[in-house]
Amino acid sequence: MPLIDPSHPLGNLLQRDRRYKLDAYMFVLEALSYAQETLNLGEEPPEEDLEARPVESSVPARSRSGKPKRRPAERHLTGQQLCEAARRYALQQYGFMARTVLGTWGIHSTRDLGEIVFNMIEIGQMRKTRKDKREDFHDVYDFDEAFTRDLSFSVPDNA
Predict the structure, then answer these.
(1) Are the C-beta atoms of residues 81 and 42 closer than 8 Å to each other?
(2) Residues 14 and 116: beta-carbon distance below 8 Å
(3) How many Cβ atoms from other residues are within 10 Å of residue 66's Cβ?
């Protein structure tokens, strides 16, 4: 398991909420990137719809030269879009073992994905709009069915 500094907001979160492993949080961030970059999901929300970042994460990142890094435009996904992206990403990465792998990290339903997202929002690692709520992640799909759909196996010809 990757180690994380306990003083980092994520390290502190892992101490407070032991339902999910660090890998679960990393998976959700990777699924978000996959959704935006590969699936081209999300759109830029109006600035007034975004909730403010917590103070500790509002300091701009700096490049090696000391100049503030320009952040890419934030593209917002709905809870349902992120759940579907997580499903596709898990199948791509882990195939028929996706449900089992996610389960070892504490992810057993789309509700768990929402809990992880809102934990990340709480520590300033993700943002939400004023319209977003935990319930957006409730029962988006059934894990048993979702991780068997779109799976295909091919048997090589013995020619």
Answers:
(1) yes
(2) no
(3) 6
User: Given this model, what pLDDT does residue 69 score?
Assistant: 45
Q: What is the pLDDT of residue 156?
A: 78
| Residues 80, 136: Cα–Cα separation, whole Å | 7
Higher pLDDT, 147 or 140: 140
Distance CA 86, CA 102 (A): 10
Is residue 94 within 8 A of residue 52, CB to CB? The reply is no
The span from the CA of 131 to the CA of 133, in Å, is 7
Task: Tell me which amino acid residue 37 is.
Answer: E
> Residue 102: in which H helix or E strand, if any?
helix 98-104
Domain positions in the chain are 9-47+73-146
SS (HEC) of 63-111: CCCCCECCCCCCCECCHHHHHHHHHHHHHHHHHHHHHHHHHHCCCCCHH
Q: How far apart are CA 36 and CA 61, in angstroms?
A: 21
- Tell me which DSSP letter residue 11 carries: H
23-56 pLDDT, tens digit each:
999 999 999 999 999 998 887 766 666 666 554 4
Tens-place pLDDT, residues 73-114 = 567 899 999 999 999 999 999 998 999 999 999 999 999 999
Name every residue whose Cβ is closer than 8 Å to that of residue 5 and which is 6 or more positions away in sequence: 11
